[in-house]
Amino acid sequence: MSKVKKVVLAYSGGLDTSVILRWLQDTYECEVVTFTADLGQGEEVEPARKKAEMMGVKEIFVEDVREEFVRDFVFPMFRANAVYEGVYLLGTSIARPLIAKRQIEIAAETGADAVAHGATGKGNDQVRFELGYYGLNPDIRVIAPWREWDLTSRTKLIEYAEKHQIPIPRDKRGEAPFSTDANLLHISAEGKILEDPWDEAPEYVYSRTVDPVEAPDTPTEITIDFEKGDAIAVDGVELSPAALLTRLNELGGANGVGRLDLVENRFVGMKSRGIYETPGGTVLYHAHRAMESITLDRGAAHLKDELMPRYAELIYNGFWFSPERKMLQAAIDNSQEFVSGTVRLKLYKGSVIVTGRKSDKSLYSLAHVTFEEDAVYDQRDAEGFIRLNALRLRLGGRRDRG
After folding, report:
1. Which residues are catalytic?
2. Is residue 76 part of a domain?
3. pTM to 2 decimals?
């Protein structure tokens, strides 16, 4: 192994990253700096600090980045109405660039010459982390233990941990029925019992949403206020970005909103099956589209819908810091200047139903659209409009008929 002086490790405090921490110390004989991010995953992150201290780490970073996560990553993505392959709201994908960004910043602060992550060699996350690293520091050294070591099973990981006296929680010793990833936007589950796409996911897989069948029989009605494309208030109460998404998670989860069973195409080439819960994000997605429906010009709205799959794919594949994502973001953000107002929705047994929308910036004109008599639209104008649009069709039709 070429010499490494100091490495910044994305550290959760769990079995995998704790083994990685010790493996880095032994294999590269280097100093390890740990970074633990509170992204709203629903678990305490401070225990990671104590575990890192116990393992001899001198420089430990444990940070609450929930507000930055929602404000600078989730909200810009939702301005685009981004969904991957038609349904996935990109909950895992959008968290990786923030972690990568902080690792690179911490490396600069601490004088580290390398960064490391715990993603496996089969998944998308290795790509997302490393494209983020290189996009922010082209000369950084990247260490991906799962592509280097011979600890190829959970049993070997546990044996390594026991050999090196790395504490393993009792509930982590058995074979987990599936793996999870969580943050404030979503929680995902994949692997093991979920690998056969024909088998229905058992109910215990779900943790953020009630079974829609068991959800309340009475709809929950809410309002969401928007300002320039970003949600700023729920039921008239202004909230910070993270607090707002937390509130929508509570409301959506209680009504069974946001469940998704998806077989997706990974960037590395294989298909995988995942179970996703994105309650607050699902509510926000429908509300934002409803707000755009009355404030966004038709041409801009349709162009956004054309650009969205490309934008979503860039995020899924790890190109958050790419020039093309930034170019698309600039266009998207420009479109949001007048996307302000209020949307009313009903949440009911897994469904999000838009029941009203209003805005001072609305392009909706009752005077023009009414079925009653009006003084602003001359219906005779439509004849010339239709004849001009039909001209090429008529010429083509005459040719085809000989």
Report:
1. 16, 96, 125, 179
2. no
3. 0.94
Residue among 32, 213, 188, 212 nearest 123 (CA): 188
Given a contact cutoff of 8 angstroms between Cβ atoms, the answer to whether 252 and 282 are in contact is: yes
CA 188/CA 91 separation, integer angstroms: 8
User: 258 and 201 in one domain?
Assistant: yes
Q: Which of 147, 175, 203 is the last residue of a domain?
A: 175
Give the integer Cα–Cα distance in Å for 283 and 278: 9
Query: What amino acid occupies position 86?
Result: G
In a domain, 80, yes or no: no
- CATH code at position 234: 3.90.1260.10
Q: For residue 394, give its domain range.
A: 369-400
Residues 391 and 340 in one domain: no
Distances (CA, A) of 285 to 124, 209, 258, 278: 24, 17, 10, 10
Q: What angle do CA 174, 179, 184 make, to 5 degrees?
A: 130
Nearest 10 degrees: CA dihedral of 371, 303, 227, 245? 110
Looking at the structure, do residues 353 and 383 belong to the same domain, yes or no?
A: no
Residue pLDDT, tens place only, 263-303: 999 999 999 999 999 999 999 999 999 999 999 999 999 99
Q: Which pLDDT score, from 0 to 100, does residue 367 have?
A: 76
Amino acid sitting at position 67: E
Residues 262 and 153 occupy one common structural domain? no
Q: What is the pLDDT of residues 6-19, one digit of tens each?
A: 999 999 999 999 99
Percent of the chain with pLDDT over 90: 89
Q: Which of 131, 149, 175 is the last residue of a domain?
A: 175
CA distance linking residue 77 with residue 312, whole number of Å: 8
Rounded Cα distance between 65 and 67, Å, is 6
Would you give the DSSP letter of residue 201? Answer: P
Average pLDDT over residues 150-179: 83
CATH number for the domain spanning 128: value is: 3.40.50.620
d(CA 260, CA 249): 15
Helix (H) or strand (E) holding 241: helix 241-254
Structure tokens at 148: 């280097």
Q: Does residue 154 share a domain with residue 197?
A: no
Quick one: how far is CA 227 from the chain centroid? Answer: 21
For range 17-41, the mean pLDDT: 96
213 with 119, same domain: the answer is no
